[in-house]
Amino acid sequence: MVSTSPLPLETPSPAHICPYDQACSYLEQAAKELKLDQNLLVMLSHPRKVITVSIPVKLDSGEVQVLAGHRVQHCDILGPYKGGTRYHPAVTLREVSALAMLMTWKCALLGIPYGGAKGGIAIDPSRYSVGELERITRRYTSELIKDIGPSVDIPAPDMGTSAREMAWMMDTYSVNVGHAVPGVVTGKPISIGGSRGREMATGRGTTIAVREALAERGKSLAGTRVAIQGFGNVGGAAALLLHQAGAKVVAVSTGAGGVYAEEGLDIPALKSFAAQNHRRLMGFPHAKSISNAQLLTLPCDVLIPAALENQITEDNAHQIQAEIVAEAANGPTTLKADQILEARGITVLPDILANAGGVVVSYLEWVQGLSYVFWDEERVNRELEHLMVQAYQQVSQKSQQRGISLRGAAYTLGVGRVAQALSDRGLYP
């Protein structure tokens, strides 16, 4: 029996919901701020290459299922394409296109010589066995052989994928070209060329951005009340690092709900509890169970959405009580909600800055892989610290100079650097 998984319907939607339209809206705002030539804007609005491949996979039951795999390569003006590979039921070509564009601006903002890309397959990985996931990943990689490579496009983990999937991708690519190519992906296991510090990188970058934003207000992390939506690789890492720095992490959540403690949660104990209870947080001693929606509106100093897109909307933006929102997730704030938060005087650390720690250490891993010289974690963290602090200071300075939000400043810097490179290189032919 052969079955085909239905492709997700992509009906038109308003800009505050549609991620690609939202990404384009921020691009247009930056272009207006930069007085960008209209021809440059048109070129930057479109991805260079959109790839959709068929992925037939034989399930453990013997059934053959045909999946659709996407890879969108937005821009390689500054260097090879770079971006994650996402396994999630909500993956659509539109979403992947938006995230590829965001990666372009993120890399440019951080001064990393990459362009933006993103890939994904619309599956729930929890519904597949390890063997099935390996076959899906290897076939997906095989279909993309001509479109990826250490100087072409470098995939990385994203939602639903991990170092395991990157190992399969690296091996598949290496077998096809006839020799080991550690630089074809990042986020690999350390045993095959991965970088130390990669697992905590995105959460560490978010922590650095929050620390710098507080410092500008004459405050420190010590005693700061933080609520974090998400307790996975990003949210869990940020929670632990903030806890170690003396912050009071008062609430965290997963998709199933979260926990709240006014005096702060014991994050190491909570991580152990979650590991023993299939990632469930409810029932943790001395904590109150809360929903994801409740977490977003709790009284706190810093709110960190570290889960899915479109969590802060026009419906709940008026209820946000935090002074700072640090976007550890991609696109957690809708366009309308962002306007509401700005009008209320709430500082938003935009996603292309606040969650850039992951791509920074991916870049450092790639550099190590190309040179076959590998660093200790202290050096990796030191390089990450330097690039994140530098980017934050540049964004803050641009915001003050132009009288615009941090998001507007971040996009102005990122888009401006790509536009300048495109202008300098010219249009072929």
Give the number of DSSP strands.
Answer: 13
Helical segment count: 14
The overall pLDDT average reads 93
Helix content: 40-55%
Q: Would you tell me which CATH topology of the domain at 201-354 applies?
A: Rossmann fold
- Quote the beta fraction: 15-25%
Secondary-structure-based class equals: alpha/beta
Terminal CA distance: 49 Å
Radius of gyration: 21 Å
User: How would you spell out the order of helices and strands?
Assistant: EHHEEEHEHEHHEHEEHEHEEHEHHHH
CATH-defined superfamily of the domain at 201-354: NAD(P)-binding Rossmann-like Domain
CATH architecture of the domain at 201-354: 3-Layer(aba) Sandwich
Order of strands side by side in the largest beta sheet?
Answer: 10-9-8-7-11-12-13
Largest sheet: 7 strands, mixed
> What is the CATH level 1 assignment of the domain at 201-354?
Alpha Beta
Question: Features of this protein?
Answer:
globular; six-stranded mixed sheet; alpha/beta; 13 strands; 14 helices; about 425 residues; Rossmann fold; about 45% helix
Helices and strands, with pairings:
Blueprint: E1 2-4, H1 19-34, H2 38-44, E2 49-58, E3 64-75, E4 81-87, H3 93-110, E5 115-121, H4 130-143, E6 153-157, H5 163-177, H6 201-216, E7 225-229, H7 233-244, E8 248-254, E9 257-260, H8 267-276, E10 288-290, H9 292-296, E11 302-305, E12 324-326, H10 335-343, E13 347-349, H11 351-354, H12 357-371, H13 377-402, H14 406-425
Parallel strand pairs: 1-3, 4-5, 4-6, 7-8, 7-11, 11-12, 12-13
Antiparallel strand pairs: 2-3, 3-5, 8-9, 9-10
Helix pairs in contact: 1-3, 1-14, 3-14, 4-5, 6-7, 6-12, 6-13, 12-13, 13-14
